Amino acid sequence: MSFITVKNLEVGYEKKTITDPISFKVDKQDYLCIVGENGAGKSTLMKTLLGLIKPVAGEIEFGDGLKANEIGYLPQQTVVQRDFPASVKEIVLSGCQARAGLRPFYNKEEKKLAEENMERMGISSLADSCYRELSGGQQQRVLLARALCATRKVLLLDEPVSGLDPKVTADMYELINGLNREGITIIMISHDIAAAVRYATHILHIGANLFYGSREEYMESDEGRFFLKSQEGGRKNVR
Amino acid sequence: MLDKLITYLQHPFVMNALIVGVLISLCSSLFGVTLVLKRYSFIGDGLSHVAFGAMAIATVMNLTNNMLLILPVTVICAVLLLKTGQNTKIKGDAAIAMISVGALALGYLIMNVFSTSANVSGDVCSTLFGSTSILTLGSTEVVLCIILSIVVITIFILFYNKIFAVTFDESFSKASGVRTNAYNFLIAVVIAVIIVLAMNLVGSLLISALIIFPALSAMRIFQSFKKVTVFSAIFAVVCAVLGLVISIMTGTPVGSTIVATDAAAFLICCITGSIIKRR
Prior knowledge:
The complex is a heterodimer of chains A (239) and B (279).
Chain A: E1 4-10, E2 12-13, E3 16-17, E4 22-26, E5 31-36, H1 42-49, E6 57-62, E7 71-74, H2 79-82, H3 88-94, H4 97-100, H5 108-120, H6 136-150, E8 154-158, H7 166-181, E9 185-189, H8 193-199, E10 202-206, E11 211-214, H9 215-220, H10 222-238
Parallel strand pairs in A: 5-9, 5-10, 7-8, 8-9
Antiparallel strand pairs in A: 1-4, 1-6, 2-3, 10-11
Chain B: H1 2-9, H2 12-37, H3 43-60, H4 67-83, H5 92-114, H6 120-129, H7 139-158, H8 160-168, H9 170-175, H10 180-202, H11 207-221, H12 225-250, H13 254-278
């Protein structure tokens, strides 16, 4: 049984579907990249996977010991967060909130977990710094550490490198890849097909043409070849 | 000057006013941080106008205890308004503005058409800007206020971490299994209670001031949620006491004096904040 099995899922808002039926599955230690044009429904699909919105049709099954709320989520930054007065420690600890349940305060284990994850992301020295004064890359590390407090199994990342400079982007990809090698399953939304092809084990391409398969299959497919080509072409033009 | 203050303090109604003023300011400041950060600064305004409308209806209906009508109506509106934040057709700020002016107009209309009192504009003015009513509080009202404040503060402390999680990132919290809807509901109910309580103090037009000034001032200076919360609580209490004392000594209207004190203190915090940053 896979971690997540999605069958003929249609996503959208207020019962209006915006995608064709999507089917795919995610196994333990997979690295799935969801790619597609703007407006193809990538973020909506992710929100549906997270249970934030209800599927219009089809089903999502969680298995292999994974529960629906054991998914760590790295959202895109919201306007609210940009000037939120909070220390790094406070934010990372808030990842333990679901674990704490109705208990009003965090216990020692949760505080330790938060510290370990800050260590893991290399932000221990920033623990008392203010979130809104950090650089984009540092902020992403903070949110990643928080997501790791919420899960040991699956991470969902929504455009984790948007707005980061190339150097920081490369670091971020390495960091995520490292987590994947440590045994954490990754599901990532990305615009960057070149990077997706480089790191992912599986690719889900949504949009006019739907594709799901392993990385190798994608590179052989029409969609894959078309987009890889167009990205390369785009780069040449920039140069 | 000091003698005069001490003489005043010996009157029980002055002590009552101080107790109620401090408690209400404290409660509003605690939840103010969350509201400002959630971009709901104006909900205080909207809800207080709703409370004003409900109060007008209660007065016309000659209810002996108008709290019985005001509190439930305000709570329902609070829940509805905080819910509109999530993908509805009318967005949060527009919904607040609509309900706010609607209730204000309706309240004034009802008071004007059905009022039994000879001085309608006087009544309206005192509900909007707060009257000297805080100086004429009965002991049951003071006790009620103390009990509700203790409940509000206890809820805040017990749910502090959850309020932080829900405020900072609602979708993350929801995705990781936190019952965000329940906490949002709780926040809405508590806000409504605070606003109904605060109407006695500053009147329905100035309630927003009690909610936003402490939070904004603290955010100028401090960088962590805990520090911001603690400082805004202290800020609110100090300003409430100062404002009340000034208003008693000089005979200015209570509500506006407290708000003026808040505004002055906010300026001081702005200056302090920019000095700290420049270093």
